[in-house]
Amino acid sequence: MLQLLGLTAGYHGGTVLHGVDLTVAAGTVHAVVGRNGAGKTTLVHTVAGLLRPASGRVLLDGLDLAGRPAHRIARAGVGLVPQGRRVFASLTVAEHLRLAHRPPRSADRPGVWTPERVLGLLPRLGERLGTRGANLSGGEQQMLALARALLSSPRVLLLDEPTEGLSPELADRVHSLARTSADEGMAVLLVCPSPAQAIGCADTLTVLTSGRTALRMDGAAARADAAPLRAALDLTPARD
Ligand SMILES: Nc1ncnc2c1ncn2[C@@H]1O[C@H](COP(=O)(O)OP(=O)(O)OP(=O)(O)O)[C@@H](O)[C@H]1O
């Protein structure tokens, strides 16, 4: 499982995350929601090692990864689908998949993701194997970013707004892949642009407000009554 304890981080001496505590159990999807600028991407980047925390711990099955370089954190089993996809413009889909594929070396990795399995679930990528990143559509780039993360056989999958700009059909596909990954034992942290999405797919969720945990609740409780979630986000029913 992934456990964040008192995570504090920011930029250029300023603080964005103020002592965030958050737990994502193996086999579950944990959604993080919050308004623009609440610190969601900062949280994901700090966990992934792209940003060094000022203090706090990032525990992966008890091992503290806080402050380690990103490649070490990836090797420890943290996969990232960054906001904005970040695929390589000059590499083809097939090259991306080949570079990303890291068969699990130990039995502690949940699920087994092979290129064949990923392409079976994302068949559009299979049709674009020879296409360079720069020539993929936004949705195809998003699929590729997800495929790349899965092929690294992570124990924790960080998805930063992975459905941004996708059609409803593709967005459903992404959520169902997140669900499948969790059902096979992965801990999935999903940054959601809207509370409706979080309610639809999360086992547990956190609302971040100005870099602080404003609310933590079960997905089932949020599905039964979304009022506390909306109140934490300061949303009136008409806004979402
Ligand atoms: N590289 C950076 N340098 C300085 N400040 C930054 C940097 N990245 C983000 N910030 C600031 O940190 C705060 C949190 O940004 P962050 O991107 O984490 O929010 P977010 O919740 O992911 O927002 P959004 O929903 O708009 O993606 C914002 O005030 C933002 O301006």
UniProtKB/TrEMBL annotation:
**What species is given as this protein's source?**
Streptomyces doudnae
Among SUPFAM superfamilies, the record links this protein to:
P-loop containing nucleoside triphosphate hydrolases
The chain positions of domain ABC transporter read: 2-235
Q: What is this protein called?
A: ABC transporter ATP-binding protein
Tree of life domain: Bacteria
**Keyword set, alphabetical order:** Amino-acid transport, ATP-binding, Nucleotide-binding, Transport
> Which Pfam families is this protein grouped with?
ABC_tran (PF00005)
Which InterPro entries would you find in this protein's record? AAA+_ATPase, ABC_transporter-like_ATP-bd, ABC_transporter-like_CS, BCAA_Transport_ATP-bd_LivF, P-loop_NTPase
Q: What is the lineage of its organism?
A: Bacteria, Bacillati, Actinomycetota, Actinomycetes, Kitasatosporales
Biological process terms from the Gene Ontology for this record are:
amino acid transport
